[in-house]
Design brief:
With 357 residues, the protein is an alpha/beta fold. It folds into 2 domains: 28-231, L-asparaginase, N-terminal domain (Rossmann fold, 3-Layer(aba) Sandwich); 245-356, 3-Layer(aba) Sandwich (Rossmann fold). Helix content is 32%, strand content 19%. It has 10 helices and 14 strands. The strands form 3 sheets. It has an 8-stranded mixed β-sheet with strand order 2-1-3-4-5-6-9-10, with helices on both faces. Helix 4 runs parallel beside helix 9 and helix 6 (257-264) packs parallel to helix 7 (282-293). It is globular.
Length: 357
């Protein structure tokens, strides 16, 4: 009897030891955040800690999470490896997979927010795309780093920590997709990469920061400009690909036949990264007008870092059947135009979309 009593006591202790961590994790009053990894510099590695060259997407999501002290005190975290590429190789195919997965996850009651790890080169485009097609008001946050995980003073771990803090906060609900890096919170519609290598590369030059996050403590200054997420009319449900839209970068004596080549390659829309206020030389403008009359949507954006492209200012958009991008840069104009072209729309309706989003 004494042996049986001792055995029962040991079994009881073992059972408590087994279930206690699980019960603790389930009873903690923490939000649930899913991290979707796509690769990029934040998951990169190099042979030394002080070299500029590195290989993106070498570190898996679980390793990245484990490398961030205290991150699991912010939220109950799960990770998924959605892709593993440098952001120069980000694709529309991955965008569609990512967006559909986000919508699927956020429809669940037990998911409170999403963090996406992403390379910085095209992060603003991915964030803006998601801003238009995610149909939830729960927080969606993109983050990354300018230095690989092996670098001296790699900033990726703190960026990931702060991104999870933003995604886990009730204050973040209804603010659209955000980009969090270098202690700053940017709106997807406003942010752009401004430096090739500096950690403070991301800026929101027209609208300013949406907020700040310092070691997980966050404060918001404003809500984002433009319609987004639950207010957006765009949907990628059932969409397998997006219409081709090309960007043509304007300069001195830009060859007008670039427009013809783009159309022959299958472009349904063309964004001109124009000089100044979305301008282009006379020959290119003539080619753009011809293309517009043939049903190709031509958007005038600008190669200039800040400022609005005004309708019917230096270019008569009514006469040339062109669209003014308003404050969207060329790369974001392309994103919006690809989604716009999923439906037949009048030029007037398309112009309203550029004012709205």
């Amino acid at each position: 009897m004494k042996k049986q009593s001792i055995l029962k006591s040991i079994l009881a202790i073992l059972l408590i030891a087994m279930i206690t961590p699980y019960a603790y994790s389930q009873t903690k009053d923490l939000p649930n955040v899913v991290i979707l990894a796509t690769g990029g510099t934040i998951a990169g590695s190099a042979a030394t800690g002080t070299q500029a060259g590195y290989t993106s997407g070498q570190v898996g999501i679980e390793t990245m999470i484990d490398a961030v002290p205290g991150i699991r005190k912010l939220a109950n975290i799960t990770g998924e490896q959605t892709a593993n590429v440098g952001s120069q190789d980000m694709s529309i195919e991955v965008w569609l997979i990512l967006a559909n997965r986000i919508n699927e996850l956020l429809a669940k009651d037990d998911v409170d927010g999403i963090v996406i790890t992403h390379g910085t080169d095209t992060q603003e485009e991915t964030a803006y795309f998601l801003n238009l097609v995610v149909n939830s008001d729960k927080p969606v946050v993109t983050t990354g780093s300018m230095r690989p995980s092996t670098a001296v003073s790699a900033e990726g771990p703190l960026n990931l920590y702060n991104a999870v803090a933003v995604a886990a906060s009730p204050k973040s609900k209804g603010r659209g997709v955000m980009l969090v890096m270098n202690d700053q919170i940017h709106a997807a519609q406003a942010v752009t990469k401004t430096n090739t290598s500096a950690v403070q590369t991301f800026k929101s030059p027209m609208q300013g920061l949406m907020g700040a996050v310092i070691y997980g403590q966050l404060e918001y200054y404003r809500y984002p400009h433009g319609t987004h997420t639950t207010g957006s009319e765009f949907s990628i449900k059932g969409v397998k690909k997006l219409p081709r839209v090309d960007i043509i970068y304007a300069g001195v004596d830009t060859p007008a036949d670039l427009i013809d080549y783009s159309i022959k390659a299958g472009a349904k829309g063309i964004v001109i990264a124009g000089v100044g206020n979305g301008n282009m030389n006379a020959a290119t403008l003539k080619a753009a007008k011809k293309a517009a009359k043939a049903g190709i949507v031509i958007v005038r954006s600008t190669r200039v870092p800040t400022g609005y492209v005004l309708r019917n200012a230096e270019v008569n958009d009514d006469e040339n059947m062109t669209i003014a991008s308003d404050e969207l840069n060329a790369q974001k104009s392309r994103v919006l135009l690809m989604l716009t072209l999923l439906k037949d729309r009048s030029l007037e309706d398309i112009q309203k979309l550029f004012y709205t989003y």
